[in-house]
């Protein structure tokens, strides 16, 4: 009987800490890294000769939406993720999670991407949700935040509102949630006043978990949004992570550098503020997010009344004027998903405006109204220079902000963003091998050791004895994304072998079909 289940030999190994690589062999037994060193004379059931290749920990995608897009269930192989080297996905981002699932909010959100008649939800608590996942085969490891919006939707406002929220937060954390995620740009959180929000962050600070934040504003008001967040951090000591940090719109690009300066100074003060980002200039976001923050605070029912008034509401004129001022390029805003009008998917706003004989501002409001505010877009509004500036910060990690798909994605109403197929290889291709603003060890750290540390994963993210055998073997000369906006469902190239919990998930650049992912629960 072979001593090891897997040996990866002759590779250049990056351990995920940011240190220079070593030429060493890796011995895996079952799901664990058992030995690092010279294993040339040892035997294994599977031997990979990684000569000329780089070996690293599996990539940790800390802002992933495979849960709320339901592909974690409908496409459990998660091929678009594992073929780019992702071995762990973290869900429950941007205030929305699949548990605790006691209200209608989550169902409505899931309905943007999946036929709800095909969805069977058999849980309520975070623990029950994770139990269900553990009974299923998963193509990668999965952990989840508890989304505050999902929690809030479980209750009606009353005197005990914040106590009830804290109760569900605490129970979700005990059940294994990694932390709690917030979306300060949505209507549900207007039910909480500033003191109540401070109280929630005080609770999370004492619980010693990370709070994951979708900023209230990612446009021209990004600086006030970050300033407000840092003030909360200073008052509570809460550890915070900002999801998909960016400055949206040409008018906001100059604010990105001072925003990074603010975060850097906060960390120098002793706070713990980190962020993640994706290497694309086009967002895959909600059309609703383009509206000014003051109108995004209204509930769906309130917005329906505002959008439907026959006399004309002056607030809509204010919205149109705001949209004009932020100088949107309507030919670069493509509809990716629409709740009801499937025929508009793949078209840009300029096309729709010309077809209707209306302005771009009017089309935005018309499309939102017709689709109950639930429209996703690709929007070319991020500066390449800004992405480079975020890349160079020590507190920034890389994520996809994407979804795991099969290469044969059958949902024609959900056009995948290329980041779902190639965010990590694209980063190497552009920023390491291309413009060379990061070296390989620092880039790999931002995909492995750093996100694992932020998320509190204590046995993943490093090539280290005793750690789980989540490993990637890739060719540094060829690794790249093949996915495009026009033809997104293409695997990356250059990722040759991927091991998840010691099992072969990708072999010779092709998915093996072996589903060896595990559910990751926060350890108390």
Distance between the termini: 38 Å
Which CATH top level class of the largest domain fits?
Alpha Beta
| Residue share in helix | 25-40%
Average pLDDT works out at 92
- Number of structural units classed as domains: 2
- CATH topology call of the largest domain: TIM Barrel
Strand residues, percent: 15-25%
CATH architecture call of the largest domain: Alpha-Beta Barrel
Q: Roughly how many Å is the radius of gyration?
A: 23 Å
Number of helices: 18
How many E strands? 21
Query: Oligomeric status of the shown chains?
Result: single chain
Query: What's the name of the CATH homologous superfamily of the largest domain?
Result: Metal-dependent hydrolases
Largest sheet: 9 strands, mixed
* Coarse morphology: globular
Description:
The chain has 524 residues and is of the alpha/beta class. The chain folds into two domains: 58-281 and 382-460, TIM Barrel, CATH 3.20.20.140; 289-377, no CATH class. Helices cover 32% and strands 20% of the residues. The chain is built from 18 helices and 21 strands. The protein has helices at residues 71-74, 79-82, 105-110, 126-134, 148-152, 161-175, 194-207, 222-236, 256-268, 293-296, 300-308, 314-325, 349-356, 360-370, 384-391, 419-432, 440-447, 449-455; strands at 4-13, 22-29, 32-37, 44-49, 54-57, 59-61, 86-91, 141-144, 146-147, 179-183, 210-214, 239-242, 273-277, 282-286, 333-338, 375-380, 396-398, 471-474, 495-500, 503-507, 510-511. The strands form four sheets. Strands 1, 2, 3, 4, 5, 18, 19, 20 and 21 form a nine-stranded mixed β-sheet that branches. A six-stranded parallel β-sheet has the order 9-10-11-12-13-17, sandwiched between helices. It has a three-stranded parallel β-sheet with strand order 6-7-8, covered by helices on one side. A hairpin with an 8-residue loop joins β1 and β2 (22-29). α4 (126-134) runs parallel beside α6, α7 packs across α8 (222-236) and α17 runs parallel beside α18 (449-455). It is globular. The two termini are 38 Å apart. The mean pLDDT is 92.
